[in-house]
Structures are given as structure tokens and as C-alpha cells.
Amino acid sequence: MNVQDDVHDEGGRRLDQIRLTGVTATGYHGVFEHERRDGQTFVADVVVHVDTRRAAAGDDLVHTVDYGQAAQLVAAVLSGEPVDLIETVAERIAATVLALPGVQAVDVAVHKPQAPIPVPFGDVVVSIRRDRTKLPAAEPYRPATGQVRRSADTGLRPRTAALPLAAGPSSPPAPELPPPSAPAVPVPPAPLPVPGPPSPPLGAPAAPAPAAASTPAPDASRLGHDAGPDGVGAVVVGPAPSGAVPTGVMPAVAAGPDAAPDGARTELMAPVPDVVDGELVLDALDEPPAQPVRCVLALGSNVGPAQETLRQAVAELAATPGVEVVAVSPLARTAAVGPEQPDFLNAVVLARTTLAARDLLRAVHAVEQRHGRERVQRWGPRTLDVDIIVYGDTVAVTDDLELPHPRAHERAFVLQPWAQVDPEAQLPGLGGGPVAQLAATAPDRDGVRWMALDWLTAPVPAANPEPEGASAGEAHLP
């Protein structure tokens, strides 16, 4: 199929793609009686748009799309309930794939190479894209209960259950796929001991829990600021701060049949009915470091008395338990990007912290909220923006925190003030390097208008942005 335009996530980052081409099955779709009676070959190409970094970080199928399962679902739709139009088939495939966890958009092309057309032709193709803003005009295919299982994040290698292909009313029964051979059963890792009361159960267990399951589960409040409904925490993909512990995985929590979408079940080492992946994960970003860790915070404001807001924010950060402010950069005035809005005032704070990375994230969000921060419009004006740029040498990709900040290496309004206060600073991670050198080549370097040195103790002339005016460049990290 022709490659369509890239799809971007809410942060403006291009999503990755998983492609399935040439999925073929005999179907009974069409408006003519002989099409419904005799059937013909249908072919589907599918492009799934998803973020694959978390799966790659942990080398874990649970955090990406199982393309084997997806292919079977697509084939099931092709060979399933007959409809008149291949447009309907395409919508059903899109709805089915979009319902898989983690999928943010899907491209579907359905081919009907044996269409009853009375002139020579090569193929008939209907191609569509569906996402969360343009939902499919059909319901997803739902196999019978127990036909499809998703592997739980249990610390064990997942395996894929066979999916019998559904057949249409007029079609012969499709052959059942051979079951996979049973792998050797490894010993699961022991869960990490976590203080605090156990979390309430999600439902009655389907079978007696093993002895290890009696270990108290982590406090659900420590799963991250924006933890997803499955309760899965972060995945650390680089060096963790000194004293951090490796990822520990708690056993899957049994839940009732209403806790998961139809057809979605968890498979552990043997089929267990009515179990969903409700596991709790504690990772290194939740663990306080053994020694204070250096961190860099970027501050910005362009609503209200921006200089005073930044002054108060620095004082509140310094008063935060577990945070020691070491140095504060000059104040920079920088042009904004996006909708028309005033210039930003920006500064960088160097600090040491004994907080875990995710606890630091909660602390800076609390400072933002005290100053009325609202996340309404991307790249819009804001009373206060506080971003964690680096946390030691940690390189991590998680649902709620990415370290170092993924766009810091190209943002002069962060790099220039940072280089002023620490000329030898190094930005770790992909695209990193000497901060001063990165500042000199940053795409928005011309948007930094001026810097003031004594802004914490004295008013800076024209520090408060004028009510109107904007130009190219960027003055905050989205």
C-alpha cells in the first residue's frame, strides 16, 4: 500500500510503524449471489502507528502490538461475516486493530483482485486511515471468549495463543491454527518488597493465589503522574541513579470478566479464565538515589508578572524537601511559537536532589499548579512552566517522564542560560553533547533576545512581556 503521511502523538513526535502486508483470506463479501456462494480472495495491508520505544527498552511484547495476533484478527475479518462493500470490511479491520492496546492510528488497504468487473483490470483497493479523532464507522471484530489472549507483563516471556479464524454464514469452517508448543516454565522473579499497606484487590481471584502473591503491592500513588489504566509504571532504558534497584514486577492481579474488553484475557503459564493484566510495576524512577543527584530544571513564564512568578518558583523549589538549589542562570527573554502571545522569560536552575525522579516530577508540577498552570493549548501561553531537563545521567522513556527532555538539545532558551551558569555542562543521551556547543547551533538561537544577571534581587527593565507580539522561535518546552 502507499505510505501515507506520518502520524504524530500529542507531543508532536512522529509515531513508529508496524506494517502487515498481504494478509490473505477467502471471503464472501459482495453484492452478487455468486460472491456470497463461492467466495473469493481478499487481501489486506495494515500499517499500525504506535510508540515502540517502551517495548524495545524492556524487550517485552506486552508493550507493543503483537503482529501475529493482529494478522489473525485481520484475516478473521476478511473471512468473517459477509457484507456487501469492501469499504465496510476496511472499517471493520480498522476498528479491530485500533482497539488493540497502544495503537494510536491505523492505515488499512483492502484489495479485491477478483472483483466481478467486465473489463480487464489489475486490482480494486479501498484505503482508509482511522485514529482517535476519526473513529471507524464499524464495530471491532470480537472473537469468542477465550479465542484470543494477551500475554501479561509477568517477567516471563509471553506466548501467543492460537486464534481460530471466524467464518461467515455461507463459508466453510476455517481450519484451526495449530497450538504452539508449551515452553519450559521459568521461575518468576520475586517481587520487590515495598513498604505501605497493600492495594485493594481489583476483583475476586479466579484461582488460589501463589504464596508470592501475598507480598504487599506497591502504593498505587507511586505508579506515575499519568499512569495508564493498566497501572503499568515506567521502563528505564539507560543508567539509573546510584542506589536504584532494577525493575520489579508484581504478580498479575486477578479480576472479574467485566474488567477487560470482550475477548481480552491474560495468559500466564497456563490458561486462566477471567484474568487481565492488572499488574503493578515499581521501577528505578520511583526509587530515591543513595546519594544526591544533580538535576537541571527549565523555567518559563509569559502570563502575568513573569519575573516575579519565576522568582517565587525558584524560592519554592529551594524550599522543597529533598531539593537543594545550587545555581540559577541569567534571565532570558525569548520569542514564542504557536498562537500569538507575548515573549517568554526563561531561566535554568541547577540543583541536587535526594528525591526519586518521579517524585521530583510531582514536586515541580505542584509548583506549577500553585501558580495556576493549565495545560489547555499546546505551545500556548502559560503562567509557569517547569521542566526536568536532566536527572543525573539517567536515560529513560516512560509514559509520564522522558529523560533527558527529548527536545532540550535543540532549544536555545534552555541551552543558552544553562551554558551561562555552567559552561562545562554536558547534556546526556541521544543528540546530547557540550551544552555551550549545542546552544551555539540551536535552531531557535536567534530568538533569545537578551539576558539579565541580577534578576532575582532587582527588577529587570521590560522584563514583563508586552501584551502582544510573537515571532519565530520557541520559548518553552511543550
From TrEMBL:
<keyword id="KW-0289">Folate biosynthesis</keyword>
<keyword id="KW-0547">Nucleotide-binding</keyword>
<feature type="region of interest" description="Disordered">
    <location>
        <begin position="162"/>
        <end position="230"/>
    </location>
</feature>
<comment type="pathway">
    <text>Cofactor biosynthesis; tetrahydrofolate biosynthesis; 2-amino-4-hydroxy-6-hydroxymethyl-7,8-dihydropteridine diphosphate from 7,8-dihydroneopterin triphosphate: step 4/4.</text>
</comment>
<protein>
    <recommendedName>
        <fullName>Bifunctional folate synthesis protein</fullName>
        <ecNumber>4.1.2.25</ecNumber>
        <ecNumber>2.7.6.3</ecNumber>
    </recommendedName>
</protein>
<feature type="domain" description="7,8-dihydro-6-hydroxymethylpterin-pyrophosphokinase">
    <location>
        <begin position="378"/>
        <end position="389"/>
    </location>
</feature>
<feature type="region of interest" description="Disordered">
    <location>
        <begin position="136"/>
        <end position="155"/>
    </location>
</feature>
<dbReference type="Pfam" id="PF01288">
    <property type="entry name" value="HPPK"/>
</dbReference>
<keyword id="KW-0808">Transferase</keyword>
<dbReference type="InterPro" id="IPR006156">
    <property type="entry name" value="Dihydroneopterin_aldolase"/>
</dbReference>
<keyword id="KW-0418">Kinase</keyword>
<dbReference type="InterPro" id="IPR035907">
    <property type="entry name" value="Hppk_sf"/>
</dbReference>
<dbReference type="InterPro" id="IPR000550">
    <property type="entry name" value="Hppk"/>
</dbReference>
<dbReference type="GO" id="GO:0003848">
    <property type="term" value="F:2-amino-4-hydroxy-6-hydroxymethyldihydropteridine diphosphokinase activity"/>
</dbReference>
<comment type="similarity">
    <text>Belongs to the DHNA family.</text>
</comment>
<comment type="similarity">
    <text>In the N-terminal section; belongs to the DHNA family.</text>
</comment>
<dbReference type="InterPro" id="IPR006157">
    <property type="entry name" value="FolB_dom"/>
</dbReference>
<keyword id="KW-0456">Lyase</keyword>
<dbReference type="Pfam" id="PF02152">
    <property type="entry name" value="FolB"/>
</dbReference>
<feature type="compositionally biased region" description="Pro residues">
    <location>
        <begin position="170"/>
        <end position="203"/>
    </location>
</feature>
<comment type="pathway">
    <text>Cofactor biosynthesis; tetrahydrofolate biosynthesis; 2-amino-4-hydroxy-6-hydroxymethyl-7,8-dihydropteridine diphosphate from 7,8-dihydroneopterin triphosphate: step 3/4.</text>
</comment>
<dbReference type="InterPro" id="IPR043133">
    <property type="entry name" value="GTP-CH-I_C/QueF"/>
</dbReference>
<comment type="function">
    <text>Catalyzes the conversion of 7,8-dihydroneopterin to 6-hydroxymethyl-7,8-dihydropterin.</text>
</comment>
<keyword id="KW-0067">ATP-binding</keyword>
<feature type="compositionally biased region" description="Low complexity">
    <location>
        <begin position="204"/>
        <end position="218"/>
    </location>
</feature>
